[in-house]
Specification:
Blueprint: H1 7-28, H2 36-54, H3 57-66, H4 73-119
């Protein structure tokens, strides 16, 4: 553990932990749209965010090994966190819309079929 943990580290760690728990619970409850890919992506992305928020020195080690500078690492990391949060939220919204559209199309098709059968 680092000597001093900042408020930002605590907030990022808490957010990552909440997304991990939420994704795991959705998978365990077998909610619609939950796949192995989705749980693995959640575990990988938010697990890494959790680890890097608790151990920020790991980002410096990786950036040094890759030959990147250290000054922008924090901003890049925060940017990735925000982008991933937005992407997960958008994926959930899109999946709900797809389910709703599918349900509407099915109902309409059944209604059309009933109307045609009544006409005969």
């Amino acid at each position: 553990m680092p000597e001093k943990i900042s408020i930002l580290q605590i907030i990022l760690g808490a957010i990552a932990l909440l997304f991990l728990i939420n994704g795991f619970l959705k998978f365990v409850r077998n909610e619609k749209g939950q796949t192995y890919f989705k749980i693995l992506a959640t575990l990988f992305i938010w697990g890494n965010i959790l680890v890097f928020s608790i151990f920020p020195d790991l980002t410096h080690i990786f950036s040094r090994k890759l030959g990147l500078g250290e000054n922008l690492n924090t901003l890049i990391f925060i940017g990735f966190v925000v982008i991933f949060a937005i992407l997960f939220k958008l994926l959930n919204i899109i999946e709900k819309l797809e389910r709703n559209i599918s349900e509407i199309v099915r109902r309409q098709a059944l209604n059309n079929l009933k109307d045609k059968l009544k006409e005969k």
